[in-house]
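[[Sequence with tokens]]
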Amino acid sequence: MTAAETVSQEAQALAEASAQAMWSRDHATQGLGMRIESIGPGRAVMSMPVRQDMLNGHDMCHGGFMFLLADSAFAFACNSYNANTVASACHIDFLAPARLGDVLEAEAIERSRSGRTGVYDITVRLRGGRTVALFRGKSYRIEGQVIAGLQDKG
């Protein structure tokens, strides 16, 4: 195994451990029926089924729930290095509706990470289908670690 492969495996293991620790404390995400589909350094994919109690007056998924899913994927991606990181700004563009029974998937990808800040793009799609929202999040690293006592790898 090469040194790069070892570092990559260590970074992946850290991302998975950080996600597990965050998940255990994230009651909002759990309560909405979200699932972590995949996690890695600077990336995350999460899903959420659209339930009856998530529909607005137009019988569509309320945009706030789409934002929540995107924001959660953003949080798991930017905390994947075990460094406590929060949002400093977010923006979402709604492109198409989601309906009762749809499963939404949010894919977060790190675009930039330097010093205490980062930029992440999150695409929200219907499972296996069209894009329904585009979200951009800016992150800011604060004190502490997701898993206290581990060395920051990033």
Notes: Helices lie at 3-25, 27-31, 63-78. Residues 21 and 147 are 7 Å apart (CA to CA). The chain is about 30% helix and 35% strand. The first strand starts at residue 35 and ends at 40.
